[in-house]
Design a protein that fits this description.
globular; 3 helices; 7-stranded antiparallel sheet; 32 strands; 489 residues; mainly beta
Amino acid sequence: MAHFPETPSFTGFNTPSRIEADIADLAHEGTIPPELNGAFFRVQPDPQFPPRLGDDIAFNGDGMITRFHIHDGRCDLRQRWAHTDKWKLEREAGKGLFGAYRNPLTDDPAVEGRFRSTANTNAWIYAGKLWAMKEDSPALLMDPATMETIGFETFGGAMRGQTFTAHPKVDPVTGNMVAIGYAASGLCTDDVAYYEVGPDGALLREVWFKAPYYCMMHDFAITRDYLVMHIVPSVGSWDRLDKGLPHFGFDTSLPVYLGVLPRREGVTGEEIRWFRRDNCFASHVLNAWQEGSRVHFLTAEAKNNMFPFFPDVHGAPFNGMEAMSYLTDWTVDMASNGDSFEAISRLSDTAAEFPRIDDRFTGRKTRYGWMLEMDMRRPVELRGGSAGGLLMNCLFLKDLETGREQHWWCGPVSSLQEPCFVPRFADAPEGDGWIVQVCNRLEDHCSDLLIFDALDIEKGPVATIHVPIRLRFGLHGNWADAGAIGLAA
């Protein structure tokens, strides 16, 4: 019998769910827009077995993919495990075999050399496949219609890097998927690989370069001509792993860098430019674009580390106020001769993370951004426990052209998961469409899927779809039209 630990990561709303399900025609309130015809895929870390070492962080749970198939004004749900090497080996053994987050020294010797991916960070649709992603390994491919696992994608062995991002981008002009892989030559190495993948799923380009230091490179951006990456000191080392410390720790003494690499045939890693600034924390990226010789990189920036489970390397306590992040524009000038940023400009005083755009405009100047807001002025009654981390209790819309902000509060005993934009039709204007996102009902231990008019979130959801099972706190998700994934109405 499985006995999970009585710790915050495994109790209350964070109790493992471990449910595979098929549920047709979910009950809902309001009106599901009849124009919606496709599916919203999202992923949650959901441990199959109790942790091998007695406790664990949420980031190390097995990937469970949820698909909300929306069609004809109704919504059907399918939920399946991602069958990684880890999932299959542990299922066969009937217990946990893989140890601490990104520390193979804590694994059962029987699994040495196997992919440690949990496929729990992003559910992404490209080239007719569902990509279940964890950035410490290649991506895991699944069938988006049946949700059966296909296997890890190494492009027929053509990919030399050992890792693939959990935050790929699609160039709206070429249709290529752009990705990076850090620790490309092995755990804790400073090698990074830049990949481009064609719409047919073939690997077109793989270019290697060195990062200023090894760190978590969780997200990045592209522009028309460039790959743009921020280097923030959530650092790791084999020494930390030998000592049994968390894989990453935050180092406030190190500078932050922005790397800019041309995206063109024949580019080499030596062509990357590194711009340098003072220490800060930043993880997710809203977007980036070029204006003349300048590159604008919009990210959620905090003064200090946002991850309490990756503690300060110098022993400083976690600082919740300094962990609050704000949308910020980092600007560098490619025509300059130095390595300094041209400007760092805060774009909002609203504390928010998990930024999303209308992805059809990736790498181009965009007007709208949706984020999860952390509004500590609102009443909070966590009678059912928190979904983890800072409480994200508002959906936030920023109009970068006018400066106008909209906010929608989910209530005192709820929290929100990442928003996802769905265009009204293929060539609709930027922002014309809907936002879909999961809402955690913390006291009732259940979940809702919310649908908003994307540019009028203040009026609240146009539809609230009730999920009769509890979805754990998820990370990232994406929409796909029905025709792209083989789903009939």
